[in-house]
Amino acid sequence: MKPLSIPRAPAFALIMLTAAAVAGCNSNPVRDVATSLGAGPQVAPTPDFVARSRPATLDYMPIGTPVPERPTPARTAEEIKAAEAELDALRSRNEAAGAAAAEMGKTPPPEPVRLPANTSQQTRQKTNSNRRP
After folding, report:
1. CA distance 33 to 39
2. Residue 75 · residue 83 · CB < 8 Å
3. Rounded to 5 degrees, what are φ and ψ at 30?
4. Pick from 30, 6, 32: which is nearest to 17 by CA?
5. Model's pTM, two decimal places?
6. Range scoring the smallest mean pLDDT among 47-56, 73-82, 119-128
7. What three-state secondary structure class fits 77?
8. What is the pLDDT of residues 61-96, one digit of tens each?
């Protein structure tokens, strides 16, 4: 009997599909092969400011763990009342300034300019001086 023989093209396709399935979502085997052969995109080095601004590991926060404590403690009831009083005073100052501005804007508009009533100019029509009767 002849050993199991598979044509080359389907065998290559099967190997590529297997590699893609094993690689999962983290890589692109076609791109990786093309890059290793020099035909794919070239990977540029990460700029320094980007490398410094990102953490070394990008792990996700595990589910079910407690949230870390706040950097500042919560305000007490007295601090909240003091902040509310400060905001109320600021609101009353703003309302007073708005009322003063509204009062200044209540000046009546000026009266329209009245032209002198000269009836002779209104009824007179221009005549053509070159016209002969």
Report:
1. 9
2. yes
3. -65, -45
4. 30
5. 0.33
6. 119-128
7. helix
8. 667 777 778 888 999 999 999 999 999 999 999 999
